Amino acid sequence: MQISLTKRTKLLFTGDERNDMADVVKVSVHGGHSGQFCCHAEDLLEEIVEEYIRQGFSWIGITEHAPAINDQWLYPDQKAAALTADILLKQFEAYMQECRRLQKKYAALITISPAIEIETYSGYESFVGYLINRYAPSYLVGSVHFVNDIGFDYSEEYYEDAVRVAGGMDVLYENYFDLQYDMINKLRPAVIGHFDLIRLYDPDYHARLKKPAIAAKVTRNLELIKKYGLIIDYNLRALHKGASEPYVTSSILEAARELNIAVVPGDDSHGISGVGNFYEEGVRTLQAHGYSTEWQLPA
Fold first, then answer.
1. Could you give the angle at the alpha carbon of 252 between the alpha carbons of 245 and 61, nearest 5°?
2. Could you report the per-residue pLDDT of 47-98, keeping only the tens digit for each?
3. Does the predicted TM-score (pTM) go above 0.90?
4. Which range of residues forms the domain containing residue 207?
5. Percent of the chain as helix, strand, coil, to the nearest 5
6. In terms of DSSP bridges, do strands 59-65 and 231-235 run parallel, antiparallel, or are they unpaired?
7. In a 3-state reduction of DSSP, which class is residue 60?
8. What whole-number distance in Å separates Cα of residue 5 and Cα of residue 247?
9. Could you write out the DSSP letters of every residue in 178-224?
10. CATH classification of the domain holding 120
11. Would 248 be classed as within a structural domain?
12. Which of 127, 125, 132, 164 is nearest to 147 (CA)?
């Protein structure tokens, strides 16, 4: 693929769309999962990077999932592919090497941050420390995919299992936000990934998030994010998967705005087809909520 040094820092529009979007720098704080290094993604990482360049992105975080600590934490699709924790660690090392190669190769066209999206099951803190020391990522995306050591986002069946183990939906939410709070305190990841992912299979999440015990934990976590100057990922993949709004939901988005927390778009791409999806819609929603589009860089 031949890529020329053309306009890469602004969204390009024509006609009536230009008035509110033409000067918005195009970025993704969380994305770039590829079939090369992730079972549930598609395409080569370089092809995905080239698509970001083609679409005019200025900077991106490539935020591949951390490998499993041991075989206990393998997802079903990883087991089906006959992967092991040792294989995943070697694969992750290859990811970091490839990401840094692409960072240098395309430096004149796009700024690439080789990053890690972490997990939150038993023992994760020490393992994340090991990964940081060994690979020196540009930053961490602090995501919660496991509650009570159950990967609740893998499928609706797994989510229901997580609800059962927690002792109810409300308790699951509370456990989720407690685990997120603990993760933020211990690791201070520069980016908080899909802050309210726990609502994934809950049709009543709007009402549930307003329940006093849950709302108090959301507020507490937002205040901690503000204290440490972290970024919330405005995760647009939810729209790609058919949800009515991104992560975070509008009520939390309003609360984060009142605290002046930085919220930055992340397409959470899992292949070429996910690059930049719903970007214009996401930016316009952030603008409607009063957010600046002078995007904060992860640090």
1. 70
2. 999 999 999 999 999 999 999 999 999 999 999 999 999 999 999 999 999 9
3. yes
4. 15-288
5. 45, 15, 40
6. unpaired
7. strand
8. 33
9. HHHHHHHHHH--SEE-STTGGGTT-TTHHHHTTSHHHHHHHHHHHHH
10. 3.20.20.140
11. yes
12. 164
